[in-house]
Structure formats: C-alpha cells, structure tokens
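look at this stuff:

>
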Amino acid sequence: MQQNQLPLVSVMIIFYNQENFVRETMDSVLAQDYGNIEIIPADDASSDSTQAIIKEYAAIHANIKPVLSSVNGGITQNCSNALQVASGRFVVIMGGDDLMVPGRISAQVNYFQQFPETSVCCSDIEIFFDDAPQKNFIYRNREFYKKMSAAKIISQDNAPPTSALMFDYDKCRGIIFDYRTPVVSDWLFVCESVIRGKTGYINKVYTRYRRHSENTTAFGVQKSYIEDRLIYTDILISRYPQYKLAYKKQRCSIFYHVAKRYFMAGDFKGCRSMLTSALLEWPFHIKAIALWWGSFIGKPVLKRLKK
C-alpha cells in the first residue's frame, strides 16, 4: 500500500519534566516502519529542558506537531490539548517516558483492517524499572487477551497501561479526557472506547512501560488516584447505566485495595471501614470477605503476611 493510502495514525506523547526520556521516547516512535504517522508531543509547561528538546525534534521532522503549554494544567488538560490537534483515523496515547517497539504501529493498524469492528487494540507490555531492584516482566491484560466484554473490562482490578493501546477514533469520536478525573482520565477514556466496539489483542510485546518513583500512580499520589477512580465510576454510571453491575464490582475492588493498605499498615479498624464500603458495593468479593475476618485477628495474620 502506498504511503498516501495508509490511514493516518496520531501518536500523542504526554510530557512533563521528562528531559531525561524525551529523546529515547521520540526516537522509538520515529523508528516505526509505518509510513503515515503524525507525532504530537504535548508538554505541560515543563520547568526543565523538555520543551527545548521537543522544539529541536520538530525543526528536523515535519510530521512532529508540538503542543507546548506555558501554564501547567495537569495531565488531563495536557491530554485534551493533544487530542484537539490529532487528525488521525487511529490514535495512540503514550507517556513521555514509555517506548514503542519496532513494528508496533504497522501491526496494530493491520489488526484494525483485519477486524474492522474493533474500537481498541492492545498488545503485550514489558514493564521495566529505572530506579528499583525489581526485574523486568511481561504484562498481559487478561480481559483484552481473552477479548472479554466491555462489562468485564470496566470491572477489572487493574487497567492496562494506556501506552499499549491504539484507538479507532472514528468509533471513539466525541470521547474526551474529563476534567473531573484529573489523574485517571485516560482510563475513563479507555472504558468509554471499549463500549463503542470490540476489543483486540496482539500477543506480542510492542510497548515498554517504564516504572519509576515519579510515575503518576506512584505511592505519593495514591489518595488522589483512588478518589479519581471512584469519580470515574460515577461518571460512567450516569452515562452508561446498563453497566451498573460492572461499576459496582469496580468500586468494590477499589475499596478492597485501599483496605489492604490499611491492613498492611496495622490499621485494622480503617481496614474494616474500607471493607464495609467494598462489600456494600459487591457482597460476593471472596478476598474482601477473607480480609474482613483477618482484620479481627489482626497482628498474627499481618506477621505471617510480612514473612
């Protein structure tokens, strides 16, 4: 297929103070063998040299369309800014510290062409660590891998990194990054997108997802992350009430994971309070029930878990 016949792919790269990663991330996209890509590096008023590096790349490559903010608006606003200038049939949303593996764009576009009913296509992901002793590992999202329903994906415990997804934006037109969820608006975007069509999966690593101490979901921002997850379920319930049971399972899972942190900190009363909220949402969560009873035993159980 000639380059001008290839559907355009918009690659949105979301940056903030990532001068150490900009070149590696941009180079991984520029190295793709697909012939019709626009790259949209969106920077949220970085105080380091991120914007200068982006300008340097844009001066060399005509397909780079920078979106550079002078005022910090947060990750949701930054994503919205990038999406507003994206003109591709297909859209990829990458973190500014993540990497594409060669051949990814071609593989995902080919999948959409083979299965045109697909609205979101996922691949395997390599999780790698910059500043921690953990070993790299391959993450396979079970719900996407098994091509489960939108309800199953909405109710899952953990969202796949958005960097591994490609969206058919013809099907997802009108979906936005909602300002009411300033931390997890990308997962709200994903949930709404899977409702628009079928999910697809390519069983090969095409994305490398970097974990380090400054990730958005790192320990220091867990409180706002959890609150945002509850807010996005409220938004989804109002927009798509037919999936109410899936949202209740998701909310149960959110409270359960908070309860686990209380338990591991030795706050057994706080743990039971979160578990009460969890089981009011979905009373059949076996792990939540087990943790409830474990919280009454308390320290002996905690001691065994920490061994």
About this structure: The longest helix spans residues 244-264. Strands lie at 9-15, 37-43, 67-68, 90-95, 99-100, 118-129, 137-139, 166-168, 198-211. The chain has a mean pLDDT of 89. Residues 115 and 277 are 41 Å apart (CA to CA).
